[in-house]
Amino acid sequence: MGYIVKPLKPNGSLDRFERFNLTPEIGTEFFNTSLAEILRADDAEDLLHDLALLSKSLLQMATTS
């Protein structure tokens, strides 16, 4: 018996931060924020979830190109 696993999707919590996608190898640069600020945020769990998904997608792009 197998489990049906749905892919994880971003929840949009990072949308409030200004960012720029440099390259798949370098990644995304966020402006006017810090990791410490994200960790202290009331929605830190959502933010970390989206950061993990972002880093995973960038890593996949870098390894397939």
Q: How would you describe the overall organization of this protein?
A:
- By secondary structure, this protein is an alpha+beta fold.
- It has one domain.
- The chain has helices spanning 35-40, 44-64, and strands spanning 19-23, 27-30.
- A two-stranded antiparallel ribbon has the order 1-2.
- β1 (19-23) and β2 form a beta hairpin.
- It is flat.
Order of helices and strands: EEHH
Q: How would you characterize the largest beta sheet?
A: 2 strands, antiparallel
The radius of gyration is: 14 Å
Q: Tell me the overall shape.
A: flat
> How much beta, percentage-wise?
5-15%
| Contiguous uncertain segments of 5+ residues | none
Q: What is the number of domains?
A: 1
Number of helices: 2
Give the helix level as a range of percent: 40-55%
The total count of strands amounts to 2
List descriptors.
two-stranded antiparallel ribbon, 2 strands, about 40% helix, flat, about 15% strand, about 60 residues, alpha+beta
In short:
The chain is 42% helix and 14% strand. It is an alpha+beta fold and 65 residues long.
Secondary-structure topology with pairs:
Elements: E1 19-23, E2 27-30, H1 35-40, H2 44-64
